[in-house]
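sorry to bug you again but im stuck and you know this stuff better than me. below you get a single protein, a line of residues and a line of whole numbers that encode the local backbone shape. mainly i need to know what kind of three dimensional shape the backbone takes. anything you notice is useful, everything is just below:

***
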Amino acid sequence: MNQEEIKNKISRNVRKFYLYGFILGIHTVRGVYYPYMTVWGGLTFFEMMLLQSYFMFMIFILEIPSGAIADYLSRKTAITLSAIFVVSAAFTYSIFPNIFLFFLAETLWAFSIALFSGTDEALMFSTLKTTGEEDKLPKVLGRYQLMFIIANIISAPLGSLIAGFISLQFTMTCLGLIYLAAVVTSLTFKEPTFKAEEKTKGYLTILKEGFNELKKNKILRILGFDRLIINTCIFLLFWTYQPYLTAINIPVVFFGFILAAMNIFNAIFNELIPRFLQKVKNKKYLLITVNLITGFAFFILGFAVIPILGILMLFLIVSFGYTRGLIYINGINKQIESENRATVLSTINMFGSISRAILYPFIGLIVEWNLYALFIIIGIMILIFTAVTKVKSEYL
């Protein structure tokens, strides 16, 4: 097989990556997760957050070893294992409502997330580098998210219908059956040929180099942690928008449809943000604008007892806040040596995991005290972190 044929085979990873994202996006539980956990699962919101704290803590434990697996064995292997673990997690979660089974399921799910985290970017960057198109990484990752979101849009109302006409329990069983297709798709990825050179390094060497690269590279630290801190605040919406819809008396039957609309806005901006990046000279101004819109949207949400205003703020947050990570991708990846890419990205994500693990129980307590106060606090925190950011346009 000549070099051109090898490149063509590797370039097909991109299309397979889009398919993989679409399959993972068919999330039949997401639109009814709050009633699934509280009505079928029998948990309070605080208990939900304790479970998620455990989940994030497990990701923290598994993040670096998982990144090293991707660098030492192969990124394809890591993604396949990730798919197998998420299938196992979904089936475990749907056996019957038992908190100990839920903890086991979250352990399996954490291993899946940790294996995939950073490995996806690393595989795509390696793929694009092989074909000389590494600058297209933000576009590829944005399109992956688009496919993921399109599947979310389709499956959110579907999940509501399954919950209404079959059962809340079957929404999770159905998820496990769907994710079997992700296992099959992962087996078709082609590992870039230069990975063979990377396998000569030992496991501990990879870990050490991953930490050292983050430690010595100031720009990488600034970009990584600036993205991480504000994103941690923003993605608290994932756990609180359904309690918010409940608080403003939106019937549960509409949850999936509102989530579908949120995903439509998210999908549009996953396409728009990479285009803005190509046209805007001062990328820091774009980042600050996105942060300000998101911060003020959270702040207003803290006073929004009128359903129309509150839902509009949800749309703004998922449009701008959920997509802001795309602004950092090129800058971060240019700072990392290819051979340690998955490990370094996993190192950054690891700090996010432990931060959420510590934060979630407190979020649970605040929500049970006053949900609206939480939104105000998040909005203020985003504005403060934006004001003190050390990111420069040339870093992005």
Remarks:
- Residues 229 and 352 are 7 Å apart (CA to CA).
- The chain has one domain: 3-395.
- DSSP finds 19 helices and no strands in the chain.
- The two ends are 38 Å apart (CA to CA).
